[in-house]
Design goal:
This protein has about 290 residues and is an all-alpha fold. The chain is globular. The chain has 11 helices and no strands. Helix 1 packs across helix 2, helix 1 packs across helix 10 and helix 4 packs parallel to helix 11.
């Protein structure tokens, strides 16, 4: 049966949603690894395996780039390492849905500040209202340090987006992302080994770490790349705003992390604000998929 043109967007939407779902399932598996190797150990394995996979796929060349190009890709790698460290430290303290809802404020802020419309401030207020509701017992008591880590992850996610765009201007295809992921892995791996020791290299731990990298990086990147060939960038960005809802469901199903009606309303407000902010922002070409 031939695929009609009208069916293509629906299939692309399904690819984006599938990619987001895999990312949050991967994050849930990461939480299950925390008792064995801690958040820093999980970050080390996640970035290490992601770098190996991306290097094998892209096989980037190291010649022909300026000092400015290397400065950009190193800064991108530092942002990746910081974003993952802060996000997983948040997951070690607060539920997955709450962490992603707070973290998504980073890209939301980028959309708000790149918009020229006055309505952008409406979306900012709605987002802040949603975050305020998260602290009203919607996920139980939220650890203040975990919330702080989640806000930090959001800030570095915003930096990730900006540096991703700059890296894409200097390096072709996924070369820049592969090199930046390698920088992030080189930064975190020594700390992961120091903190966790030999436990980091146990076969079962390595297998689960590879699964986290595959679910959180490789498959979502592939799905999003296919989707971006058929979806407008604005539609893709709007679909990415569904991450808090998908993360909350993954936390409920896999980790048994409960939430209240107030929590659902809080997540809904942040999603609405994200979609509104994306629609208000200036049209921009799609960047490399987000490495959440």
């Amino acid at each position: 049966m031939a695929i009609t043109r009208s069916a293509l967007p629906l299939g692309s939407v399904g690819l984006v949603v599938a990619g987001l779902t895999l990312q949050e399932v991967g994050a849930s598996f990461a939480v299950l690894l925390f008792p064995a190797i801690g958040a820093l150990g999980v970050v080390s394995l996640r970035l290490g395996f992601s770098a190996l996979i991306l290097l094998a796929i892209s096989r980037p060349t190291l010649r022909g780039y300026s000092r400015g190009s290397w400065t950009t890709v190193v800064a991108f790698g530092i942002a990746i390492a910081a974003m993952n460290f802060l996000f997983y430290e948040a997951l070690d303290r607060i539920p997955l849905g709450a962490a992603v809802t707070i973290e998504v404020l980073g890209p939301l802020a980028v959309s708000v500040f790149t918009s020229r419309k006055r309505s952008r401030w409406v979306w900012a207020v709605i987002a802040l209202a949603g975050v305020a509701l998260l602290g009203q017992g919607s996920f139980g008591h939220l650890d203040p340090l975990g919330v702080l880590f989640a806000f930090g992850a959001g800030a570095t996610w915003a930096g990730y987006i900006l540096l991703s765009a700059r890296t894409g201007q200097h390096f072709p295809r996924f070369d820049g992302l592969a090199l930046a992921m390698s920088v992030g892995a080189l930064i975190t791996l020594p700390f992961g080994i120091t903190v966790t020791g030999a436990a980091l290299f146990e076969p079962q731990i390595l297998l689960l770490g590879a699964a986290v990298a595959l679910l959180s990086s490789t498959l979502p990147y592939a799905f999003e790349l296919l989707a971006l060939r058929r979806l407008p960038a604005a539609t893709f960005a709007i679909l990415m705003s569904l991450a808090p809802a998908i993360a909350t469901l993954a936390g409920l199903v896999i980790l048994d992390q409960r939430f209240t009606v107030v929590g659902a309303v809080a997540i809904g407000l942040v999603i609405v604000a994200s979609i509104g902010a994306v629609r208000s922002a200036r049209p921009q070409p799609p960047t490399e998929p987000l490495a959440v």
